[in-house]
TrEMBL record:
It is a peripheral membrane protein. One of its GO terms (biological process) is response to antibiotic. It comes from the Bacteria. GO terms for molecular function: ATP binding; ATP hydrolysis activity. This is ATP-binding cassette domain-containing protein. It is found in: Cell membrane. Keywords: Antibiotic resistance, ATP-binding, Nucleotide-binding, Transport. GO terms for cellular component: plasma membrane.
Length: 245
């Protein structure tokens, strides 16, 4: 069944290693929207993103991308999706340029278009001087930039990015924020991004959902003062509620 949200988790539950990791999680991202997912270590953010990207199957519930179920999605869907999970897409033996070019080709671009798109993505991410360096020899932050260039190279209108700024320097954070905002504005991209940095997502996101112990426990308004305190209030309330049960 087709849905109107570009990214949608519908009542998703998942256990891993016999323990519940996600419990009845629903979340959606519309076109031209940046939705941030925040939570403590181990909250389940990466697991939810893996399910949304079809890398894991939910025990219950369903994931949709571009309005279509992820299970059984074909090249037409994946060519519109860009993603970066914890380990950035980078073959260590390939150069930065080759990595980004491969991503463009894997997302269905022809050789000429992939070549020019890779050059543009490397320039956008400030990687020109590293273009011919093997990815395995780059610093962590520059490997993250390669991963982001690979996620963005084909101009996706659906983006799922897991902690995309954790290794970036302040300039890289500003560059990424601008690129994501442009993707929203220019091609109506729907973007789901996870982060531990509340001040950073507050500057980038239209909506913020809080995931705690595998459940969505509330939302935060990006413009609100003292988001950190509000975040911990939600977490504390949820823990107290659980203890009372
Ligand atoms: N393959 C696995 N087998 C067993 N447990 C797993 C597996 N993958 C993840 N988990 C567990 O699922 C829980 C959620 O992990 P997940 O990586 O989704 O959290 P996260 O919110 O992304 O955390 P972080 O912010 O630290 O990256 C953790 O308790 C983790 O140990």
């Amino acid at each position: 069944m087709k849905t109107s949200a570009a990214i949608k988790a519908e009542r998703v539950s998942k256990a891993l290693g016999g323990l519940p990791v996600l419990d009845d999680v629903s979340l959606d991202v519309g076109p031209s929207e940046i939705h941030a997912l925040v939570g403590l270590n181990g909250a389940g953010k990466t697991t939810l993103m893996r399910i949304l990207l079809g890398m894991l199957t939910p025990d219950r519930g369903a994931a949709h991308l571009t309005g279509l179920p992820v299970s059984g999605a074909g090249a037409q869907v994946w060519s519109r999706v860009g993603q970066m999970l914890e380990t950035p897409f980078a073959y260590p033996e390939l150069t930065a340029r080759e990595n980004v070019y491969c991503s463009a080709r894997l997302h269905g671009m022809d050789r000429d278009a992939a070549g020019s798109a890779a050059a543009r993505a490397l320039s956008d991410l400030g990687l020109e001087q590293y273009a011919t360096r093997r990815a395995g020899t780059l610093s962590l932050g520059n490997r993250q930039r390669v991963g982001l260039a690979a996620a963005l190279v084909h101009g996706p209108d659906v983006l799922v990015l897991d902690e995309p700024t954790n290794a970036l320097d302040p300039r890289g954070v500003i560059v990424l924020r601008r690129l994501l905002q442009e993707a929203c504005r220019d091609r109506g991209a729907a973007i789901l991004v996870s982060s531990h940095h509340l001040d950073e997502v507050a500057r980038m996101a239209d909506r913020i959902s809080v995931l705690h112990r595998g459940r969505i426990i509330g939302t935060l308004q990006p413009g609100t003062v003292d988001l950190e305190r509000l975040f911990f209030d939600l977490v504390l309330q949820s823990d107290m509620h659980e203890q009372e049960q």
